[in-house]
User: What shape does this take?
Amino acid sequence: MEKFIVNGARPLKGEVTISGAKNAAVAIIPASILAQGTCIIENIPRISDVTVLIRILKDMGASVQMLDNTTMEIDTSNTMLPVVPYELARRMRGSYYFLGALLGRCSRASVSMPGGCDFGVRPIDQHIKAFEAMNAKVTVDRGMVNTVANQLLGGHIYFDIETVGGTINAMLAAVKAKGITILENAAKEPHVVDLANFLNSMGADIRGAGTDVIKIHGVEQLHGTTYSIIPDQIEAGTFMVAAAASGGDVLIKNVIPKHLESISEKLVRIGASIEEHDDSIRVIGHLPMNSLSIKTLPYPGFPTDMQPQMTALLTMASGTSIVTESIFSNRFRYVDELRRMGADIRVDGTVAVVQGVEQLTGAPVKATDLRAGAALLIAACCAKGTTEIEDIYHIERGYENIVEKFIGLGADIRKVSVDEPDRTPVMAQAL
Ligand code: EPU
Assistant: This one.
């Protein structure tokens, strides 16, 4: 077990380069098994979720190798075993994309119910509804989701709720289904579009990705491809918020500014300055910050995956902020940890009322999930004194080289083994 030790109250300054998008990678890597040849995927983020996907692919019979640090070659010409066991599926949410991909490849799949961040109930009824509309039979037995189809057929699916995972899984199953599939009320997130572009580069015929109606003409075969994953919208947003909250000045490189508009707009309202360039964005923080109300919404609204980081920032803004979480039922579990650092936050269901304080103070805290961990890291960089963040494996699931990237911006952070004797005089620094 490892933890981060952060000495805070330092403005972040300098440049940081954003890695490939986690939520695109976790869809594109499983999608590669639909190809009749070899896929070369560039801009792969080096995160633990990707390591799990490599293990799943290898277990199924694929040959996977890294051609360099960020380029992966996947060859699935061997017979694939259409099973993802509990031991691997429980480690990440994206493992359920093998349901759609294996259905397309092998006409059957058995995948353990997925793990991932715990923000309350996360059903997959919409995924199942989509597979059934495409002529697949779905059963759930002892934690395994089993799907089988003699012949996948195009279907007309109206999602009852905008679901990223449901939209992606339906696209994966539909690309090789016979006939036309129409997805209505589809998710519009950048990684949905990235997956569609990847599949189209393999010979699929998907139109409308990025709008709420996606039309897929099934094709007989898909071929190998070379494709580069988009930059990570949420990693970029995390550094933008960290720069603003610390009163810093950071140039965030390798981004698509259009994907960051909802975040930039909020940062301007709290008083930060934003400069947009072609593929980079500069954020200059000005303290004290203004309070703000935000509500999470599907893209292009403010992303739920930025809610904890923005809440961490608002704990240090002047006045009262209201944060409404409208995607997940329980995404405020990290609030208790911020309170340990002196934050004044009251939560009532899916609404948090944040009363800004002048300064947070370092404390021992635990990352309760991936973005919660990022929020604690931002708070720790701004807080007076030393913060120890435990359960950092959550953070490493989705952020590549996060310690090195923060150190590159002048943060005082180190990763230590929990068993290592702690040489940092925590109490002395916190006082
Ligand atoms: N939902 C249903 N039924 C379904 C599917 C979803 O009721 O069949 C509900 C969910 O419970 C939730 C809402 O619909 O209330 C939206 O869920 P969605 O399916 O969009 O989320 P997801 O696919 O489980 C992905 C990302 C999350 C991100 C959400 C929302 C991946 C692997 N995960 O999850 O990313 O928060 O979309 O944008 O792509 C993260 O990166 O930290 C993360 C949690």
